[in-house]
Amino acid sequence: MDRQWWKTWLQKLVGSNDVNSAELLLFQWAYDLLFLVQMVARLLEVSGQNLVEYSNVSQLHSKNTTQERTRDLYRLQEEVGS
């Protein structure tokens, strides 16, 4: 009974009367879905790496800007003091 239910459901899902080709098509869909999930995971991994790199560059730029401002402040103090 369970096998007949599975065959009927699969035939309706795939739209094919041939159970073997319907099962094959279902497995192809599953494989395509797995491939899509892997691609999305890879894309998220790469975006995460880029985000970390951007953050590191941003922090470095912020540090350099702070150092430049400090140097400018010292120069200004020296000019005013002299």
Task: Provide the descriptors you would attach to this structure in a database record.
mainly alpha; 82 residues; 93% helix; rod-shaped
Explain what the structure shows.
By secondary structure, this protein is mostly helical. It has one domain (about 1-80). About 95% of the residues lie in helices and about 0% in strands. The protein has two helices and no strands. The protein has helices at about 1-15, 20-80. Helix 1 (about 1-15) crosses helix 2 (about 20-80). The protein is rod-shaped.
Topology:
Blueprint: H1 2-14, H2 19-81
Helix pairs in contact: 1-2
Concise synopsis of the structure shown:
With 82 residues, the chain is mainly alpha-helical. It has helices at residues 2-14, 19-81.
Instruction: Return the average pLDDT rounded to an integer.
Output: 77
Question: Helix count, per DSSP?
Answer: 2
The secondary-structure class comes to mainly alpha
Query: What is the helical fraction, as a range of percent?
Result: over 70%
Strand content: under 5%
Order of SSEs, N→C?
HH
The whole-angstrom Rg is: 31 Å
3D shape: rod-shaped
- Which residue ranges are poorly predicted, with pLDDT under 50 across at least 5 consecutive positions? none
Give the strand tally.
0
Total separate domains: 1
Measured between the Cα atoms of the first and last residue, the distance is 99 Å
Oligomer category = single chain
* Major pleated sheet: none
